[in-house]
Design brief:
Length: 654
């Protein structure tokens, strides 16, 4: 019998190159029939072989030619293939050949490149192995054989050069189908061994939603199983790092929730859960390298809290409520400790504040003692953070809606500490970025709570009342008299109120008619120089002020708002930033010309310029202005005639 030519051992070479799964391609094909007669051997020799051009298609069941003729008139079934080899140039007499051995003959396939040959070799090998694995696993009834086949399948998938999601997903899909059909009949030790067999694959590929459902069942049925810590942890980490939307894959989120609850059932469960959250951050110092982790973990916590309270307190059976109370408190504490742990990290604190800013909890949740106690810790960390973008998340998202700052004021739904946390929030906000007319006007409804704290000698509340009187944000005269009385009732209040009266007298003198109409400060002037100059006389007639090329910052905004007649303001090449722009936008409504060229302002501050309805000329040359903000300003500033946006993103987009 004419035996096939020997194949060249090149398995290591073929595995070193990563390839894509191929479905269709061109090749030359020759058929060699095993024969014992001389004529047959001559016809199948290298020199007399007949080669045909075909465009072949690879499916899960067979190899088909789009031009069915000659050697490929009939499809080649995958199940008929006995073996497949990469053969060398000398053995085949041609370049880049594969040999597919079939009953009674073999096919030689010649490809245009070595890469194409490798693609077809590994793709056909994968289809053969896929059929074998599926056949064995579906028909197998012996647990030890099934576990062995799953191990072999995972090993093959992890080491094949094919880089294709359907290859990696196949073991997870076939195991999911088996579990769906036989889960209730399979013994617990077998399930654990099955999950262990999938472990190496779960370290590099997140489980499918279907498989997550069975992982969840195992977490609920056997929360103290070793498999959960050893095998499920990599899978959960993979999900948290790479999942983009739990809304599309709710079973993944449920699996993570059940995994967390299983960790909570271990000895020192809360400690293990908190350490798991810390491990997801990755580093003690610096930013987390995985941007999706935080959103996913917070989503799991919020969903967990919601599910806990969904059926809480509905049962009329007091014994049943008592029995479930301990489990309820244990689970609630776990989720809250996760949120607390996340606020330990500086880079996560801002995002946690943003995600909680909308107050995604019902009143039933907010009034629960354990929830409020843990929430105090979270919000205290946010309130004491020195970054404006962090502690501003305590405020409401929009006008007319309460934020954490409002609901923790004395008399609020969450206040159980006589306003202690509220006072800390107020101190940070007033002392940093919220000493502004808009903020003070917005907390007018909290004037009663502020007066109560002022009577208790709380300095932050006293300062807030003084600012409200200074900026005239209290509308009713009766309320003003009450605020003054509250200030005069304490020693600290009397001192601050006396200073307020002195400032108001100085302001009245400053705003008296008289003084220059135009004023220009020399370069290198500072905020202190401007304040000192404005304290020397009356500037009620000052309409034009140039601070160009000076060293003034946003802090000088509190001096500028004392100039009621100001119409022209030049801040070219200063350090006047967003906070300063926000402040002058609330007070200098007569401003007609504003020059912010080469200042560090951003969209955050520039959006506030929309309140300056008389603005005619605006220079934003060489700032961080974007196209969207520029379009918004043009719509909201009806008097705007000229706007310089050169060397900005808005200019580049024109």
């Amino acid at each position: 019998m004419n035996s096939p030519p020997p194949s060249v051992p090149c398995q290591e070479e073929s595995n070193s190159c990563k390839v894509k799964l191929v479905a269709e391609g061109r090749c030359q094909l020759s058929k060699v029939i095993y024969t014992n007669n001389i004529i047959g051997k001559l016809l199948s020799s290298k020199l007399l072989r007949k080669w045909e051009f075909h465009r072949i298609v690879l499916t899960a069941e067979e190899i088909i030619s789009k031009t069915p003729r000659g050697w490929m008139e009939q499809p080649v079934s995958i199940t008929q293939i006995e073996d497949i080899h990469i053969i060398g140039h000398k053995s085949a007499g041609q370049k880049y050949c594969l040999r597919i051995i079939l009953p009674g003959f073999y096919l030689l396939l010649q490809f245009p490149s070595d890469y194409s040959r490798l693609q077809w070799f590994h793709s056909i090998t994968w289809m053969r192995n896929r059929q074998r694995f599926e056949k064995v696993l579906r028909k197998c009834r012996r647990p030890e054989v099934m576990i062995k086949e799953v191990i072999n399948m995972v090993e093959y998938v992890l080491h094949t050069p094919l880089q294709e999601p359907q290859v990696w997903n196949f073991p997870l899909e076939i195991v999911s189908e088996i579990l769906h059909e036989q889960y209730d009949l399979l013994p617990k030790p077998f399930l654990e061994n099955l999950f262990v067999a999938l472990g190496p694959l779960l370290e590099v590929k997140q489980p499918s939603p279907e498989l997550c459902e069975f992982f969840s069942k195992h977490c609920r049925n056997s929360p103290r199983s070793k498999v959960i810590l050893e095998m499920f942890t990599p899978a959960v980490k993979k999900i948290l790092k790479h999942n983009t939307d739990f809304g599309k894959y709710p079973r993944m989120r449920v699996f993570v929730q059940d995994y967390v609850m299983a960790l909570n059932c271990q000895n020192d469960g809360v400690g293990i859960v908190c350490n798991f959250v810390r491990s997801m951050h990755g580093t003690k110092v610096g930013d987390c390298p995985f941007p999706r982790v935080l959103n996913n973990v917070v989503s799991v916590c919020l969903a967990g809290v919601y599910s806990l309270f969904e059926g809480y307190g509905r049962s009329e059976d007091k014994e049943e409520i008592t029995t479930k109370e301990a489990d309820f408190l244990c689970c609630l504490e776990c989720y809250l400790k996760m949120l607390e742990t996340m606020t330990e990290f500086d880079d996560w604190r801002h995002s946690v504040g943003l995600l909680l800013q909308s107050i995604p909890f019902s009143d039933q949740v907010l009034i629960h003692p354990l929830f409020r106690r843990s929430l105090n810790v979270i919000l205290l960390r946010v309130a004491t953070d020195d970054r404006c973008e962090v502690h501003q998340t305590l405020l409401a998202l929009r006008d007319g809606k309460d934020g954490w700052f409002e609901i923790f004021c004395p008399g609020g739904i969450c206040c159980d500490d006589d306003g202690e946390l509220f006072a800390i929030m107020l101190e940070k906000l007033i002392g940093c970025c919220c000493r502004r007319k808009k903020f003070l006007k917005g907390i007018g409804k909290l004037t009663g709570a502020l007066m109560l704290l002022a009577l208790r000698e709380n300095r932050a509340a006293i300062e807030a009342l003084c600012c409200m009187l200074e900026f005239d944000t209290i509308e009713l005269n009766e309320t003003k008299y009450q605020a003054v009385a509250a200030l005069r009732s304490t020693e600290v209040g009397r001192k601050l109120y006396a200073k307020l009266c002195e400032r108001l007298i100085a302001l009245k003198e400053l705003q008296q008619k008289g003084g220059p109409r135009k004023l220009s400060l020399p370069s290198r002037s500072t905020d202190a120089d401007l304040a000192r100059l404005l304290s020397t006389g009356s500037f009620g007639n000052l309409e034009c002020l140039s601070l160009a090329f000076t060293h003034v910052t946003s802090a000088c905004a509190y001096e500028l708002i004392k100039l009621p007649s100001l119409r022209y303001l030049n801040l070219w090449a200063t350090q006047f930033g967003d906070h300063g722009v926000q402040t002058i936008s609330e007070h200098l409504h007569r401003l007609q010309v504003l020059n912010l060229c080469e200042t560090p302002v951003t969209d955050k501050g520039l959006l506030c310029l929309s309140s300056l309805k008389q603005l005619r000329k605006l220079n934003l040359n060489s700032t961080a202005l974007t196209a969207d903000t520029f379009e918004g300003l043009k719509e909201k500033l009806p008097a705007l005639q000229e706007c310089d946006i050169r060397y900005t993103d808005a200019w580049d987009s024109l």
